[in-house]
Specification:
By secondary structure, this protein is mainly alpha-helical. It has helices at about 15-30, 35-50, 55-65, 65-80, 105-125, 125-150, and strands spanning about 85, 95-100.
């Protein structure tokens, strides 16, 4: 797996989505955070592992919060020492969200057993098969993203007449 090795892959399909939510909820409890704060922290860690750290606006989209609510959430995470805001772009107005050096080892400790079990389960399949499965899930996610951006952009299809 790419990234730091804490291994929390986000598969966006069925039961794995429910499991993702449950792991995040338990991570929140383990850290003593609200579940929304933990979900945001997981998104920040995941994005860093993917080499594409988030901006506050992108995080807001990922956790479905308004920009104001996201700003308050980020302030809490920053005050708790879990994240830092950096200005890495040539455009100094652009803020990049990074995990703090203190939170990464804690995340690795929490998700270590998950990572080990996932690696064991995935070892039973050829790399090409895993890659094909990830492509399939990526296609499903792209399809859902397109539906949300188009057909569901105003809340959903027109309801049938009563």
């Amino acid at each position: 797996m790419a990234g730091c090795g804490w291994g929390f892959r986000r598969f966006g399909h069925g039961a794995s989505t429910a499991n993702y939510t449950e792991f995040t909820r338990r991570f929140a409890t383990w850290l003593g955070l609200h579940s929304t704060d933990a979900a945001a922290l997981v998104e920040i860690l995941y994005a860093e592992d993917q080499g594409a750290p988030l901006s506050p606006a992108r995080l807001s989209e990922r956790v479905s919060l308004s920009s104001g609510a996201t700003a308050i959430l980020l302030k809490r995470l920053e005050q708790a020492g879990h994240i830092v805001r950096t200005r890495e772009s040539a455009d100094r107005r652009v803020v990049t969200l990074r995990s703090s050096p203190d939170i990464r080892p804690r995340a690795m400790a929490f998700f270590g057993p998950y990572s080990e079990r996932m690696a064991e389960a995935m070892a039973a399949y050829p790399a090409q098969e895993i890659q094909r499965f990830e492509q399939f899930l990526g296609t499903l996610r792209s399809t859902m993203d397109a539906l949300l951006a188009n057909e569901y952009e105003n809340g959903g299809p027109t309801p049938p007449a009563p």
